[in-house]
Design goal:
Elements (H helix, E strand, L loop, with lengths): L1 H8 L15 H9 L6 H6 L6 H14 L22 H31 L1
């Protein structure tokens, strides 16, 4: 953990115990929580995560091998389930529908406010 703090954040763990050292328990927790997947701390704790690149490569391997990658910790890839990819026109339609919903909600809110003010 000390080595990871130094490597990734250039933070000396001894600052935690030095008066006015600048490293609080809260900050230490935040730094540890956001250590990258490659950090040695996760390896030692047996909670090693795959990096994004490793996840991508494992996904390609799973597509090719048609079975789960042995090092993947998450749910196994099911090649029979195709990912749904929205086309540009579908995104455009969704955006227009969302805008319309927001416009209607705004109009209803304004109408209620006018009625309350007149009431």
């Amino acid at each position: 953990m000390e080595a990871d703090l130094q490597r990734w954040y250039q933070v000396d763990l001894r600052e935690l115990w030095r008066p006015g050292g600048g490293l609080s328990w809260r900050r230490l927790g935040v730094l540890l929580r956001w250590l990258p997947a490659e950090a040695a701390t996760w390896q030692v704790l047996g909670r090693a995560w795959m990096t994004r690149t490793e996840h991508f490569l494992a996904g390609l391997w799973e597509l090719w091998a048609e079975r789960p990658h042995p090092d993947r910790l998450g749910p196994a890839h099911d090649p029979s389930k195709k990912a749904s990819v929205a086309t540009a026109s579908q995104w455009h339609d969704r955006l227009l529908a969302q805008r319309e919903r927001i416009r209607r909600q705004r109009e209803q809110r304004e109408q209620q406010q006018r009625q309350e003010a007149a009431g």
